[in-house]
Amino acid sequence: MKTIFFVVLVCLATVSCYKDAQLLTEGNSKFTAKMFSEVAKQSPEKSFVLSAFSVLSPLAQLALGSEGESHDELLRAIGLPDDRTIKTAFMQLNNTLSFIEGVDLRMANKIYVANGYSLKKDYTAVVRETFQSEVKTVDFTASQRAADEINTWVEQQTNGRIKDLVDPDSFNTLTRALLVNAIYFLGTWKHPFYERLTLDSNFYLPNGKTIQLPTMFNEGLYNYVKSEELNASILELPYIGDETSLYIILPNKVEGINEVLENLKDFSVLEKALNNLHKKSAEISIPKFKTETKTNLKEILQQIGVQGIFNFTKANFNKILTDIKHDLYINGATQKAFIEINERGTEATAANDFDMVAVSRLVPDVSFHADHPFVYVLKTGRYILFTGVFHP
Ligand SMILES: *[C@@H]1O[C@H](CO)[C@@H](O)[C@H](O)[C@H]1NC(C)=O
Ligand SMILES: *[C@@H]1O[C@H](CO)[C@@H](O)[C@H](O)[C@H]1NC(C)=O
Ligand SMILES: *[C@@H]1O[C@H](CO)[C@@H](O)[C@H](O)[C@H]1NC(C)=O
Fold first, then answer.
1. Long-range pairs for 124-132 at CB < 8 Å and ≥24 separation?
2. Ligand 2 nearest-atom number relative to CA 262
3. Ligand 1 atom nearest to CA at 105
4. Whole-model pTM above 0.90?
5. Mean pLDDT of 288-296
6. Same structural domain for residues 296 and 283?
7. 136 and 15 within one domain
8. Same domain for 123 and 204
């Protein structure tokens, strides 16, 4: 009998103070671009947020537990050539992320194994060492209790932001293992918005309608670029620590979001545009928003070429459990992601850090009003952590 293996991912960007974190190794910027394009295609005219980055670590964990075709397709998806590279790259990643200044960025991995089964010693050792993954046994047949335990863990890892990630109904007597991954980000704007300046303003939709949204205003020196290749202008909103920023990619035209998404199929266009950012005195307005998205990762991964691991006749995860051979496959994969963009940050920081008063006496070089649907990218160092579309 075939067994069922779930991957569940949870990811969270809390920008209730803001943050941005992005990670993306060079080989994996392709993965982010592909996943972003695919989710955008499946969510037309909708807001969404995702962290392709946080999918990489569970995929890499699965790669280390697989053989043959499954192994090959997982390596291809994450863009790394072999197991040795996975180990060094992900160990390094933890280091890099642990030393990001100013923001709170946490990733956590945990593998739950059904009572009576156990992970192979070699596999346990390698995932502990590489991903700091915890392993715990759980009785999936007591599905409500199992779900409660897992959801409580996820809630703790995400500061209470992601609740009820797993559904007890998704477990049954065939569930053998569950892999959970959480990413949490909290950042504070380097130049916070003043709450008293926030007011309802027009937001224009491509269908010609206008709605009112609470909108934050600021003035100051911002990195800005107008990109011909993207047909959009880009504004950088840095977080405290100077290593992490949120980039707002605003189409030139109210109805330009689809064109911009099309142009973003290749993220090298974005990288190129970001290299051309220049400080400008700017008056800016950005809506406050919260987005929570549950993404069916199985569907997305299948679309971007990861197929065999979901097919019980093809999947090969022989290196994971001690007593099962040739019968483990991925039954489902889900990501829940959350982002909140608001004014928060201390006024003292704003006053100290940002020469707002002086700048506001100048005539701004540019006006950047995010008053129609846009794309955003949260990046830390070279890594893109979160991508999203705001389309209320
Ligand atoms: C790095 O690993 C430690 C456990 O060894 C973990 O607590 C921490 O959250 C990890 N950091 C990141 C950014 O993943
Ligand atoms: C940018 O917009 C112009 C005018 O609508 C259009 O002709 C051009 O094809 C667009 N370029 C890109 C790269 O989307
Ligand atoms: C699984 O793989 C087998 C063998 O290649 C193939 O015949 C079958 O159509 C696949 N099933 C699905 C659901 O893709």
1. 126/64, 126/87, 127/61, 127/64, 129/87, 129/91, 130/60, 130/61, 130/64, 130/86, 130/87, 130/90, 130/91, 131/57, 131/60, 131/61, 131/90, 131/94, 132/94, 132/108
2. 14
3. 13
4. no
5. 88
6. no
7. yes
8. no
